[in-house]
């Protein structure tokens, strides 16, 4: 069996002017998305609000989904840090089944707070963009390791993707807006799913 390790990403050093432009763009995008909703904000709107040229914006971020993913990066980083070093049961020190339950509940809370941004980030401009991201790779590895610990011999690779599909922004958005389920109902559903898989 191949040993899995959580992916580590390195942040490249950027020039001071590039860092300032990046900060201005992320600040402007965050304000506009919060005020108008992500679906109502164009890249032109962000460039104008940030005081940068459209070329600068597109060279740096490429498209709106990439901009949104970058904006969400700090929140994702904090959540990932809590999985690695935070208190149990989300962090180490609890049985794998309890950690998996806590992971799903934490993801549902994150989706409840930032669902529109996460939905936009998942859409992207290329097929399967969610599954190709470093963030997804991190979560997939985390869930796979927990499954292998909780149920040795299970098809953890398949089950990790299957469980994470229940935590996609699109699926949770459907559950919240079309099915009108509450956050508590979604957490209960996650708990039932994990408890049936790992009795």
Total domain units: 2
CATH topology of the largest domain: Tetracycline Repressor, domain 2
Low-confidence stretches: none
**How helix-rich are the residues, as a percent range?**
over 70%
* Average pLDDT, all residues: 87
Q: Counting H and I runs of at least 4 residues, what is the number of helices?
A: 10
Reading off the top of the CATH hierarchy, the class of the largest domain is best stated as Mainly Alpha
Extended strand count: 0
Short synopsis of the structure:
The chain is mainly alpha-helical. Helix content is 72%, strand content 0%. The protein folds into two domains: 14-62, Arc Repressor Mutant, subunit A (Orthogonal Bundle), CATH 1.10.10; 64-197, Tetracycline Repressor, domain 2 (Orthogonal Bundle), CATH 1.10.357.
Note down, in words, how this protein is organized:
The radius of gyration is 18 Å and the shape is elongated. It folds into two domains: 49 residues, Homeodomain-like (Arc Repressor Mutant, subunit A); 134 residues, Tetracycline Repressor, domain 2 (Orthogonal Bundle), CATH 1.10.357. The longest helix has 28 residues. The chain has ten helices and no strands. With 199 residues, the chain is mainly α.
């Amino acid at each position: 069996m191949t040993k899995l390790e959580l992916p580590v990403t390195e942040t490249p050093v950027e020039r001071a002017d590039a860092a300032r432009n990046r900060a201005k763009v992320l600040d402007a995008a965050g304000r506009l998305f919060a005020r108008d909703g992500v679906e109502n904000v164009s890249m032109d709107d962000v460039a104008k609000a940030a005081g940068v040229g459209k070329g600068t914006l597109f060279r740096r971020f490429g498209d709106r989904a990439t901009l949104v993913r970058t904006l969400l990066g700090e929140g994702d980083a904090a959540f990932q840090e809590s999985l690695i070093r935070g208190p149990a049961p989300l962090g180490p020190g609890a049985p794998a089944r309890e950690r998996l339950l806590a992971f799903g509940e934490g993801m549902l809370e994150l989706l409840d707070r930032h669902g529109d941004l996460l939905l936009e980030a998942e859409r992207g401009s290329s097929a399967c963009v969610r599954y190709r991201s470093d963030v997804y790779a991190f979560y997939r590895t985390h869930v796979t390791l927990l499954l292998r610990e909780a149920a040795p011999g299970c098809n953890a690779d398949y089950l990790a993707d299957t469980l994470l599909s229940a935590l996609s922004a699109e699926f949770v958005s459907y559950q919240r807006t079309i099915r009108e389920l509450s956050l508590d109902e979604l957490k209960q559903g996650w708990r039932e799913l994990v408890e049936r898989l790992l009795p």
